[in-house]
Amino acid sequence: MAPLRRDRRDQRRRRHRQRQDARLTGGASWTTGRTNGAVALNGTDGYVDLADDLLAGATAYSVAAWVRLDGQAVEWSRIFDIGTGVTANMFLTPRADSGRLRFAITAGGGGAEQRIEGDPLPTGQWTHAAVAYGAGTAVLYVNGREAGRNAQVTVEPRHFGNHLRAACLGKSQYPDPYLKGAIDDFRVYGRTLTAAEVTTLAQ
Questions:
Q1: Sheet harboring 28-32: ordered strands across?
Q2: Does 58 score more than 50 pLDDT?
Q3: Which of 1, 39, 71, 88 has the fewest CB atoms below 10 angstroms from its CB?
């Protein structure tokens, strides 16, 4: 998995020294990936604990990764989950209660989620998934193609507060199941990637 990618504008917003690396936790381990070494997640207790205050204060962002699901994803497992707990967070789940891929962001709990859904991701193969947000519009991409959009998004990471104390790959901030599969080339940007840029990442 490639090192965490951050836009320099995000780094300048950091006003005090905090942990900036990522850590493999529980049953997470290195494996062969799609583009680099990937993180394998065992679906039991394995996840990646990401850097402190990831996307803190952001008004635009993009998140992207190669994902391989090992079998049908368990409902509400996470590809990523970033925020301050169950009230304020943003996440990508391969299988919501609708049975579909879902990105959601909220600053008012589950009942206030602003969402995008797409077709379920395939299993047993590498698939590129990305979310790009800016100026009230969030777009969900799968394999470089638009899978859904929401042009009425009003919640941004800046609404989560000054300290984003949770950011994980493969683990939810709710007591949800862990992801079973692998993640490679996880990237975070403090800007809105264009459709062409997402397509390039998915090649």
A1: 28-32, 37-42, 180-189, 61-69, 126-134, 137-142, 145-150
A2: yes
A3: 71
